[in-house]
Amino acid sequence: MKLPFNVRWSDALIVGVSTLVVAALAVVVSALIGAGYSSTALVNGGPGSDPSKPLDVSSDSLNRYLDTELIYIGTLKSTMADNITAATGVSNPPPVAAIQKGNTNVISMTVVGPTPELAAEMARSAADTYIASWKARNVAEQNTERYVEVPTAENATKTSSTMATALLGAIVGFGIGVLIIYLRRRSLNGLRASTSTPGTGPE
After folding, report:
1. What is the pTM of this model?
2. Which of 18, 120, 145, 175 sits between 20 and 30 A of 52, alpha carbons compared?
3. What is the CATH number of domain 36-158?
4. 178, burial (CB in 10 Å: exposed 0-12, middle 13-18, buried 19+)
């Protein structure tokens, strides 16, 4: 029995085995490394003490202010990494993802860690570092509470699932199988061409 589209059984076997093997390896590696957990700290990064859009500030002015704060957070990258390591013992922590939350004063600071508890501690340390910097630049606001939501282990979320990992591995494995078939056919065609070319005898 022939396969559809003139696909050879040997080619189908190569693709099938490659897909299954790479998907299985992806799941095994993911299990050995452990699923990552994402934790987010929400901090008030805007002007004023209320974590919302100030009534007397236009949207453009607010967004420019928050853009500047995000730049400040970028300059604190090294300090945040050092503080996270000191607080949690995690060496070479991943970078902090900081974005403005909607059209408000709130800055979302997200960190990925190996466990919910560590992820929350890392996010808390990163946010503490930024808040200390903000208060140093805004001396009159030293006593204001800048946290909108403190990160906790209960609020941490998984960054990937076994099913998603297996699916990604299967896609990569399928691509590898197709590449193997292409290279195999190219090699066989080259071999046939070299053997079918008539030799040149002596004149």
Report:
1. 0.63
2. 120
3. 3.30.1890
4. middle
